[in-house]
């Protein structure tokens, strides 16, 4: 797959993470991973990036939209 294809897939995953947090009112990295059928490390990476960009806040082990 080309880098462009990977970028599109990554963008899709990021929006899926945001939608999952919105629907659930917040979730753990494990819950996001399970909901989206992705690895926990992948979910954590996306959540951490969203947190760095102030789209997500972390409270304990739960992430919520910021």
Describe the structure in your own words.
- Residues 8-66 form the HTH iclR-type domain.
- The longest helix has 22 residues, at 3-24.
- The chain has 66 residues and is an alpha+beta fold.
- It is built from 3 helices and 3 strands.
- Helices cover 65% and strands 15% of the residues.
- It has one domain (3-65): Arc Repressor Mutant, subunit A (Orthogonal Bundle), CATH 1.10.10.
- The protein has a 3-stranded antiparallel beta sheet.
List the helices and strands and how they pair.
Layout: H1 3-24, E1 27-28, H2 29-36, H3 40-52, E2 56-59, E3 62-65
Antiparallel strand pairs: 1-3, 2-3
The CATH H-level superfamily is Winged helix-like DNA-binding domain superfamily/Winged helix DNA-binding domain
Query: How many separate domains make up the residues?
Result: 1
Widest β-sheet, arrangement of strands: 1-3-2
Q: Roughly how much helix do the residues carry, as a percent range?
A: 55-70%
Tertiary shape? globular
Spell out the helices and strands N to C: HEHHEE
**Strand runs, count:** 3
CATH class division = Mainly Alpha
CATH architecture: Orthogonal Bundle
How would a textbook summarize the main sheet? 3 strands, antiparallel
The number of distinct helices, counting runs of at least 4 residues, comes to: 3
Mean pLDDT: 93
How big is the Rg?
11 Å
Distance between the termini: 33 Å
How big a fraction of the residues is strand?
15-25%
CATH topology: Arc Repressor Mutant, subunit A
Instruction: Give the helix/strand class.
Output: alpha+beta
Model regions low in confidence, pLDDT < 50 over at least 5 residues: none
Organism: Halospeciosus flavus
Domain HTH iclR-type: 8-66
Protein name: Helix-turn-helix domain-containing protein
Pfam families: HTH_IclR
